[in-house]
Request: fold
Amino acid sequence: MVEGGWLTRGAIIIAEERADTAFTPPTGFTELDRRTYGDTQIVIMRHAA
Reply:
């Protein structure tokens, strides 16, 4: 997404993953919030580059 030019600086991204999975935001993204709902977690990030 980044290399393809789909994201602009400051874009907000939401990732959904299993709650028991260790998720680390990729390089160039800052984690803003993380929430767990049952067996699902969402990670809200901002694209910094």
